[in-house]
Design goal:
five-stranded mixed β-sheet; single chain; alpha+beta; 174 residues; 2 domains; 23% strand
């Protein structure tokens, strides 16, 4: 399913509706209907909707999907250079790698550049373990650091903390 083609189809239908409203507005002025000025407003609104749909049909709205990535939740984001995502305890190092790549792609934004920093976005992945009843401890499993100046960053630095997975394995048994 190509979303750009969908928006183009919506643009066509909205354009037709705009022309119909314009014709009714002209007819309203010719026949001096009381709602003629409301029809002008409706026509103007439809024109704005049509222009917006046309703009969406031009813009690329594609999301990169990394195979093997699992669902994550963003639990902290300072809007600039630091993000923390939460993963389930059942995550494996291979899934963590794919999920960090997915998060780096999803959370990249030109808007993050204005907040200063070193020009890099750092995304840390963590889960919560329960070493004993009534105690919850966050366990950071890895991180990815990517450039904020380039959409396609070939030099992403992915770190996976293998020693933390050993702690995760001990927590799974309890």
């Amino acid at each position: 399913m190509d979303i750009q083609l969908d928006f183009l189809r919506y643009t066509q239908w909205s354009g037709i509706a705009t022309l119909v409203f314009a014709a009714i507005a002209i007819l309203g002025f010719v026949l001096k209907w009381g709602i003629r000025f409301r029809l002008v407003g409706t026509t103007g609104f439809m024109l704005v909707v049509t222009a917006g749909l046309f703009a969406l049909s031009l813009a690329p709205l594609k999301r990169t999907e990394i195979p093997g990535a699992i669902h994550y939740s963003r639990i902290y984001d300072n809007g600039a250079t630091q993000v923390v995502i939460a993963l389930p305890q059942t995550v494996t190092p291979v899934e963590l790698d794919a999920t960090l790549r997915q998060a780096a792609s999803d959370l990249y934004s030109y808007g993050r550049l204005g907040a200063g920093g070193n020009g890099n976005l750092t995304i840390r992945a963590r889960t919560v373990i329960h070493p004993e009843d009534g105690l919850s401890v966050p366990l950071f499993l890895g991180q990815v650091t990517r450039s904020l100046s380039s959409r396609e960053d070939a030099a992403m630095a992915i770190e996976i903390y293998q020693d933390k997975f050993a702690q995760l394995g001990n927590s799974r048994a309890s």
